[in-house]
Amino acid sequence: MSNATTAAHGDNYLNHEKGLWSWLSTVDHKRIGLMYMATVLTYFLIGGIFALLIRLELLHPTQTIMDANTYNRMFTYHGAIMVFLVVVPAIPTTLGNFLLPMMLGAKDVAFPKLNLASYYVYLAGGLFATASLFLRGADTGWTFYTPYSIRTSGTVILVLTGAFIAGFSSILTGLNFIITIHKLRAPGLTWSRLPLFVWATYATSIIQILATPVLAITLALLVMERVLRIGIFDPAIGGDPVLFQHFFWFYSHPAVYIMILPAFGVVSEVIPVFSRKPIFGYKAIAYSSFAIALIAFIVWGHHMFVSGESEFAAFLFSLITMFVAVPTGVKVFSWVGTMYGGSIRFNAPMLYAFGFLELFTVGGLTGVFLATLAVNVHLTETYFVVAHFHYVMVGGTLMALLAGMHFWFPKMFGKMYSESCARVAWFLILVGFNVTFFPQFILGAQGMPRRYWSYLPEFTLLNQISTVGSWLIAAGFLFTAFYLIKALISGEKAPSNPWNALTLDWQTPSPPPHDNFPVTPIVTDWPYEYRPDGAIVPIQGAAPLPA
Amino acid sequence: MQFPNLMPIAATDAAVRWNSLYNFLLGISVFFFVLVIGAMILFIIKYRAREGAKTFYFRDHHFLEACFIAIPTILLLGIFGWGYSVYNSMMRPPADALEIHVIGKQWLWQFQYDNGRTTIGNLYVPLNKPVKLIMTSQDVIHDFFIPNFRVKSDVVPGMYTSVWFEARVPGEHQVFCGMYCGTSHSQMLAKLVVLNDQQWAEFQRGKKIGPQPDARLNLAAEDTTADPSEAQAATIEPVSLATQGRAVFETKGCVSCHSAGDPTHGGANIGPSLAGIFGKNAALQDGQTIRRDESYLRQVIEQPQSHLLKGYQQSVMPTFKGLISETEMNSLIAYIKSLK
Fold it and tell me: What DSSP line would sit under A305-354, residue for residue?
């Protein structure tokens, strides 16, 4: 975190206080957001290296670079780190922390100290989980299915404890955000004027506080069974292994929407700004987030169609799951509708929004395959599922995170990144992603099961294409890291509102002052009032802006 | 290297029905993908930023939004119904299906046939006859997955799950373990071998048949009951699974308390009679009714207190959990099924 680079702007949150301790002890939501960002990106790097090693091992049908036990640990850590430490917290804790109070016209979140505590809880969870890497490791897969997770050796308990602790960070952040949204809106910022990112964050927070405790309970029971031999999930001592799956997916299915709803929020902000048009179907997008959050809680059984659950349960879970596709489709149609008749600009955030639409549409449509009972029976537990959830979580959430990071980069750091570099990186990541994961749909339909260290020779070609794709993604991310760091050090000075956006977060200097707004803004209209003549009327905010 | 086929062959009628549904989903997905992404690309080209161009101004279009909701809902309900009907036929075996017991263990598949044979790594089934697999695991959860038949089911310790199929294509079909189960998960393979009538009859008589299991399976193909000498084997009658179960019934002491409905075998009535109970409903002491299937029998053998029958205040039967192996349990259940 370089303070010197932004000193020229005068007093802002980056140089308001100096020194490492001022960061570690800060209660400023913007600084906490950046600390989360640094940590999440570090875990993303670790999880990404595991992914590259997994793909490298799969270059040949038999052993390429590692033995089966090492491979099993690799995919376990790749999954656990990416889910619990990267994709779940990625957008809410980084962009959410930074932007939520600013979009509301507030000085900070409702409980700034709790916010800092959440960060350290998250960090502690991450350290527990990663500490086990240096001991004997865990080979349970991120799903910890019983009774394997009870019987296998290794430091499973450390990983479970890590996920357990990180969960509390999620709960506390959700609580903090809900209260912030209720209590700290600027004058005039009614519910129907809230930016859609705020709506999405609200829906996400509800899932976080309701679902995460179930994960904590489940993991605690698992630890009790491993340590104290209490028969809960292991049939050898009187437990029921399928019960674990019910508990686990009762959290982990809603968690999928913890991962994707904030991404919807980011895309809903980016598309109107770069289309210069009001968002199409504001209410439909806002309410559909809540519809998704609600349905999220009653579809967990669709992960278990072949687990031995009853046909009646399978019938209901399949039926309800179909309804997830309705509000999701409403959003996709609304985003495309927003572009109709606009004046579309091709800055990096918008390019990533295009990427999001392509990948998420594929991910969503293949989700319908998996929701369909008979089709699920063949496709589940194969690479089709792996491809599907990577299209949704990486294609959806990560693309949106990249869109958001480029969109708000000037606001966060007061610097502009290089658009031409960003285009090259975007192209590499988008193409690389499709090359990596599209072949996996075919592999899965052909019947190649997931979590396979070795595979039959007929699957070789598609696996090799997939591995080459992973190198393209890696190149794209390395290049992104390069030009964003370069922009931090020597980027052009960013204006307050380089994209001429209307939400409150842009109606203050870049980077923002410690208290966010020189004067408390008064909101007079919704944040998507992009007029046909393209005139830039600062609709919101009462503060006079410096150039 | 040849580019592989996009789908495995469809070797059962159910797989053919599955393919129709899958192809429909593929078609409708391509349609919606082209619709959404095509519109996006069209708008990108047509409405890219130009000097002086005016944008449209609209916030909502209620009719359009209602269509966004109604059309997908109708389509999805249709897809659900089709998916359920295929699933339903995949889940309901005909009453006359041949039953074969499958035991999964880290990391191999073992198969027990009615005629008393046991094979490892190769599952032999007859052509054009419905076959029902009754499956359990000896350790962790496995998953029996036959891509050519489009069927799959988890194989769970402590309970029975099943799949059924009627193979239309003779020869070998690949079987995978679909549920991650540890170090050699990816080598827990098996071959399903579909035999024609004559081969099946020979197999029934105890003849050692056909291809060896996948060479990568670290175990020698083992056929524990067939005689190694083929010439002799053709004449040896294996002891049927039910008869093996009768021996377990005696050695484990079941016979001293339970009647088998056979005057020559057992007769004490301390516990309920086991004659003709299989597949029937029974009233429990707590007022519930339960169907006495494989999973029920297994539960009451392992934990007799779990389901007290009406008229029994408590169970004096000891728990047999951990005292009966999976193969013995399969034979015991086969014996109880055979009692009339």
Answer: TTTT--HHHHHHHHHHHHTTHHHHHHHHHHHHHHHTT--B---HHHHHHH
- C-alpha span between A309 and A330 (Å, rounded): 31
Domain boundary among B233, B261, B291: B233
| ipTM (interface predicted TM) | 0.91
Q: CB distance B47–A343 less than 8 Å?
A: yes
Each residue of A458-499: pLDDT tens digit?
Answer: 999 999 999 999 999 999 999 999 999 999 999 999 999 999
SS3 content of chain B, % helix, strand, coil (to 5): 35, 20, 45
Question: Using CA atoms, how far apart are residues A350 and B52, in angstroms rounded to an integer?
Answer: 21
For residue B104, what are the β-bridge partners?
Answer: B109, B137
- Structural domain including B174 reads 98-233
Q: Which of A33, A46, A138 is nearest to A93 (CA)?
A: A33
- The count of structural domains within chain B is 3
Q: Which two tokens stand for residue A192?
A: 């129907």
The verdict on a CB contact (< 8 Å) between B59 and A278 is yes
Measured at the CA of A18, the angle between CA A15 and CA A19, to 5 degrees, comes to 140
CB of B27 within 8 Å of any CB in chain A? no
Average pLDDT over residues B125-142: 95
- Per-residue confidence band for B263, with pLDDT thresholds at 50, 70 and 90: low
B1 within a domain of the structure (yes/no): no
Rounded to whole angstroms, what are the CA distances from A318 to A371, B23, B25, B149?
A: 6, 19, 15, 21
- Collect all residues with Cβ–Cβ distance below 8 Å to B338 and sequence separation of at least 6: B242, B245
Q: For chain B, what is the radius of gyration of the CA atoms?
A: 27
CATH number of the domain enclosing B217? 2.60.40.420
Question: Measured between alpha carbons, how far is A421 from A167 in angstroms, rounded to an integer?
Answer: 37
Interface of A with B in 221-280 (CB under 8 A): 235-236, 238, 240-242, 275-280
Residue B82 belongs to domain with CATH number: 1.10.287
Closest CA to A429 of A459, A451, A460, A406: A406
Chain A positions in Cβ-Cβ contact with residue B25 (cut-off 8 Å): 368-369, 372, 375
Nearest-CA residue of chain B relative to A70? B183
| CATH of residue B311 | 1.10.760.10
> Residues near A179 by Cβ (< 8 Å), separated by ≥ 6?
A110, A111
B25 shares its domain with B138: no
- B207 lies in the same domain as B266: no
Considering the domain architecture, whether residues B48 and B82 belong to the same structural domain is answered as yes
Do the Cβ atoms of A71 and B183 come closer than 8 Å?
no
C-beta separation of A345 from A277 below 8 A: no
Q: So what's the pLDDT on residue A537?
A: 63
Confidence band (pLDDT; 50, 70, 90) for A415? Answer: very high
- Residues 6 or more apart in contact with residue A236 via CB below 8 angstroms: A147, B157, B158, B322
Q: What's the rounded Cα separation, in Å, for the pair B64 and A414? A: 41
pLDDT in tens, B35-57: 999 999 999 999 998 887 888 88
Given a cut of 60, whether residue A1 has pLDDT beyond it is: no
CB pairs under 8 A between A and B: 270
Contact B36 A446 (CB under 8 A): no
Q: Which of B233, B261, B294 is the last residue of a domain?
A: B233
Q: Is B54 on the interface with A (CB under 8 A)?
A: yes
Helix ranges restricted to H, A419-540: 419-446, 460-490
Residue B2 lies in a domain: no
A534/B58 touch (CB, cutoff 8 Å), yes or no: no
The CATH homologous superfamily for domain A29-506 is: Cytochrome c oxidase-like, subunit I domain (1.20.210.10)
Going from the C-alpha of A457 to that of each of A387, A443, B2, B109, B216, the distances in angstroms are 20, 12, 11, 21, 12
Tokens coding A463 = 């696996």
**Is the domain of B203 the same as that of B287?**
no
